[in-house]
Amino acid sequence: MPLIDTPFKRVAVDIVGPIEPMTDRKNRYILTMVDYATRYPEAIALPSIETERVAEALVDMYSRLGVPEEMLTDCGSQFTSQIMNEVSRLLSLRQLTTTPYHPMCNGLVEKFNGSLKQMLKRMCSERPTDWDKYLNAMLFAYREVPQESLGFSPFELLYGRSIRGPITILRELWSGKTENDEVKTTYQYVVDLQERLESTCKIAQQELEKSSIRYRKYYNRKARDRTFKKGSKVLVLIPTKRNKLLLQWKCPFVVSEVVNKLDYRIDIGNNKIKTFHANMLKEYVERNFEPERGALAKVSAAVVEAENGYDRLEEDDSLETSYQDDSDILLCPLKKGSETYKDVQVNPDLQTDCKTQIATLLKKFSDVLTDIPGNTSLVQHDIKLTTSEPVRTKGYPIPFHSQQIVKEEVDKMLELGVIEPSNAPFSSPIVLIRKKDNTIRFCIDFRQINKCTVFDAEPMPNMEQIFSKLSKYRYFSKIDLSKGYWQVPLSDNAKPLTAFETPSGLFQFRKMPFGLVNAPATFCRLMRKVLKDLDHSDSFIDDILVYTVTLPEHINALYEVFTQLRESRLTARPSKCFICFEDWNV
Question: pLDDT, tens digit, for every residue of 115-154?
């Protein structure tokens, strides 16, 4: 911000509100003004913010403090209307406006507005409808406090003396002392006042220069210079049509004029040219290569080929193949699993012969222990809606740098046979969520579908009941299914309802996706069928817990569980399986 050394040469003006609740005098807004040189604040409560009312309030402030030479405001209609321009012309006042969508340009009054609102919140907590009564008292206290950037209070810089305000009175009450100045003649008082004003303003200007350098250093510590030439293409950060508070980068526009180092006039189409700050612009880089097309079609064709029985999975003669030879199984036809039974975590404290038995057992069920999702035939997930109207939700904007992530996730699900191209009238948006490890999670927002879905009352497992019966057991194993929901097929009726839109087109799920309201109920129904006849195992969603008293019993129980998983065409992820531990908190 520029350093102004003349009081009320330039003022910053803004409007706070609407403030809830409205006061008893129908006031909902506050017109605020701060002087650049002295930081002297002024504020008036207003019931509305029509241009005429705002102009009258400004003239009222000027009548007490003087008419400034310049007034800096935002681009609100109250300050840019013809009436306000005429008032400024009559008062010989120059109007300045901030760059659109860049409130930092008017940071002086914005910072004061934040302090004022915090003071109002604390002062009026008991009587919130009387906040306008306390406005002058709070301004009085604020003007008495020395400013960090100036070293003096706004009162001292404006009037040249220390006033007896609330802070001074408190200090007198606490210390029990009062200051008695010697009586001076009027002439001597004026001379002393003039000398004090000169020295005070000089010191304040020096402190302001130091503070300005310090503030600039911290504010610009991560700043990068952005310069654009006339005719260059840029991306513009502007509000969306649905919500003016939600900003997004819009398609490339052309720089029509360079106003100064930081402001540029942009041609946004429809014969409209607007001024934008450099912070709202990014250079648009055109790429000279065409992205490879047809990859999705190739993957889809491969999935269809696998469905017709052309299974390309490698077979291992040393393993039982009754599970793998089934032509209806839709495992990954083009992708091998990255994990095997060797990645299962076995209790290292077991004896050598016990480890050997467990290793043999795991190898026997190596087709079950893989990170590739299976395809069960025990249940199908169906979706019943309460309406016959198609549910379609407009997709959320996807940042350009995240579109490659979306493409990779879609290709992966096509490769696994989880999704397929769709022409359904339904559509749900995708959502990208950043996880703690800074990776992206691909999700579908099914909230609109869930609102009109008939609820499935299948009971969920009770974790407390499961834990309550584990006290007498010694050995525990935890088996985590590989993307459990993706191992449950969808009914033909439910597939179109799960359609979602991507930059590559419309797709629908073939397997049960995450996010459906009845998905947990369907999966719990599946696990009850799988573990129905087993005495030493329980499940909570996609986690299976095996518990026994002795180690031989435990190996037999694991054999039964793996056999049931193979018969049910389910798979478990090896790296998340813990076998034969003596602490069930694994």
Answer: 777 777 777 766 777 777 777 777 777 777 777 766 677 7
Contact (Cβ atoms closer than 8 angstroms) between residue 63 and residue 3? no
pLDDT exceeds 60 at position 563: yes
The residue ranges of DSSP E strands in 314-404, in sequence order, are 345-346
Contact 278, 263 (CB under 8 A): yes
Torsion region of 518: left, alpha or beta (phi above 0 gives left; psi -120 to 50 gives alpha): alpha
Strands 578-581 and 247-258: unpaired
**530 contacts 548 by C-beta, under 8 angstroms:** no
Separation between Cα atoms, residue 415 and residue 333, nearest integer Å = 7
CA-CA distances (angstroms) from residue 363 to 308, 348, 356, 477?
30, 18, 11, 17
For residue 102, what are its two tokens?
């860049």
Q: What does pTM read for this prediction?
A: 0.44
Closest CA to 362 of 546, 579, 568: 579
- Which contacts (CB < 8 Å, 24+ apart) does range 13-18 have? 13/58, 13/71, 13/72, 13/73, 13/79, 13/109, 14/73, 14/74, 14/106, 14/109, 14/110, 14/113, 15/49, 15/54, 15/76, 15/78, 16/113, 16/116, 16/117, 17/49
> How many angstroms separate the Cα of 463 from the Cα of each of 271, 514, 519, 545?
64, 21, 18, 11
Measured between alpha carbons, how far is 95 from 235 in angstroms, rounded to an integer?
29
CA atoms within 13 A on the CB side of 96: 13
Contact 329, 368 (CB under 8 A): no
Beta bridge partner(s), residue 220: none
CB-count exposure of residue 151 (10 Å: 0-12, 13-18, 19+): middle
**How far is it, in rounded angstroms, from Cα 358 to Cα 347?**
10
Single out the residue of 120, 145, 146, 142 nearest to residue 133, CA to CA.
Answer: 120
Per-residue pLDDT tens for 316-336? Answer: 333 333 333 333 333 333 356
- pLDDT: is 478 or 156 the higher one? 478
* DSSP states along 425-458: S-BB-EEEEE-TTSPEEEEE--HHHHHTBPPP-P
Res. 254 pLDDT band, cuts 50 70 90? confident
Beta bridge partners of 382: none
Q: Residue 75 corresponds to which tokens in the numbers above?
A: 């681009």
Cis peptide before 18 (omega within 30 of 0): yes
Instruction: DSSP for 127-154, please give it.
Output: -GGGGGGGHHHHHHHHHHSPPTTTSS-H
Q: What one-character-per-residue DSSP string does 266-302 give?
A: EEEETTEEEEEEGGGEEE-----SPPP-SHHHHHHHH
Q: Which residue has the tokens 């057991």?
A: 473
Sign of CA dihedral 261, 220, 37, 184: negative
